[in-house]
Design brief:
Chain lengths: 192, 170
């Protein structure tokens, strides 16, 4: 499965959700499919997209948060699985695209290429629901199920180590940051 | 335990006066009362971390969601979080209210704390992070409020160093 096809397939499910992605190919592909002010692309600080998503999910319990993570990023912050599992906000969906590679920095293989099992680690960390979804159809149904269940879920999705031709996004990171914050402020105002 | 419960309470009340709703923490001796107070407070979400760098992400998320947060960490925890402070908080102009127990400074008896104590302030200065020392119960409220005010106005991390004089009762 190509990650861009996977993103295209789940786009209708996530387009109105609060979305936090990691940097690199995922960010560029989602941006190109259709940027929205409720999408935040963490362009650095590898590993922390899930921690940011947890912070947002705990601060805005009435809104669903989708984190789009990667194997390289998650391996840099495995403790995040135990922290997410500990608080398990039902409004948090943690989707991990596992291409077994640090694609954006030269394609070097990660430990998932030699057998490290992220779904197993997530399960053993206590994440309430963990799915493995390696086809477009199974990913679509897993995402829909996770969002409908209001149960903190991690989905591990194997994808090919192929990214876009360019990682360029016509969106300065601070513009994205302020846009995103303003969008969240708007959501909070609607609640009042 | 010779950690000052009275002064911990003062610090906690000052955070509450700042409308802090999310606190992330990793346990350490000087912070035990603060963490317990947060844990017992139904109006505060305490996030117990596996490693301090997660706390930078959690505070960034809380800020973007419009909620005030604070980090309770030892200075060695601050050292563990340097990259996220640089490549998330500084890069994205995220205010952080970091309460850092200042181990390894004057009066420290534990040899293993001393190296971290020696480098804490030089590293904070090299990162351009403003520092407030909390040494006296009299200015705890004002200094914590002022630190949060600057962090929010500058969209920048600030460090409040919790001193032995304030936290420890021999």
């Amino acid at each position: 499965m190509l990650r861009v096809d996977a993103l295209q397939a789940i786009y209708p499910e996530i387009e109105d959700k609060i979305v936090v992605t990691i940097m690199g190919a995922v960010a560029a592909e989602l941006y190109t499919i259709g940027h929205r002010h409720n999408f935040f692309y963490l362009e650095h600080a590898m590993g922390l997209a899930s921690s940011m998503g947890l912070g947002i999910a705990l601060a805005m319990p009435k809104h669903q948060v989708v984190v789009i993570d990667g194997d390289g990023s998650l391996l840099m912050n495995l403790g995040t699985l135990s922290t997410m599992a500990r608080y398990k906000p039902g409004n948090l969906l943690h989707l991990v695209f596992d291409n077994e590679s640090l694609l954006s920095v030269g394609g070097f293989p990660t430990a998932t290429s030699t057998g490290t099992d992220l779904a197993g680690i997530a399960r053993a960390s206590g994440v309430p629901a963990v799915f493995q979804a390696d086809t477009v159809e199974s990913l679509k149904s897993s995402v829909a199920q996770a969002l409908a269940s209001h149960t903190m879920t991690t989905i591990i999705s194997k994808v090919e180590a192929i990214g876009p031709k360019t990682f360029h996004m016509d969106l300065p990171l601070l513009e994205n940051r302020f846009q995103f914050k303003r969008y969240l402020e708007g959501l909070r105002k609607q609640e009042q | 335990m010779p950690v000052s419960a009275t002064n911990s309470r003062l610090i906690y009340d000052a955070l509450k006066a700042c409308d802090v709703k999310v606190m992330s923490a990793l346990p350490e001796t000087w912070l035990v009362h603060l963490i317990r107070l947060a844990d017992e407070d139904p109006d505060v979400t305490l996030v117990r971390l596996a490693k301090e760098e997660e706390g930078i992400g959690i505070s960034a998320g809380a800020h973007l969601a419009g909620v005030n947060s604070a980090l309770l960490m030892q200075n060695h925890g601050f050292l563990a979080a340097i990259n996220p402070i640089v490549s998330l908080a500084l890069l994205y102009k995220i205010p952080l209210l970091m309460l850092i127990s200042y181990r390894g400074h004057m009066g420290e008896k534990d040899p293993w704390q001393t190296q971290g104590g020696l480098v804490t302030e030089p590293i904070l200065r090299a990162m351009g992070i403003p520092i407030w020392h909390l040494t006296s119960p009299h200015d705890v409220h004002k200094r914590i409020k002022d630190a949060q005010t600057l962090a929010n106005a500058a969209l920048h991390p600030v460090a409040v160093l919790l001193s032995r004089e304030l936290m420890w009762e021999e």
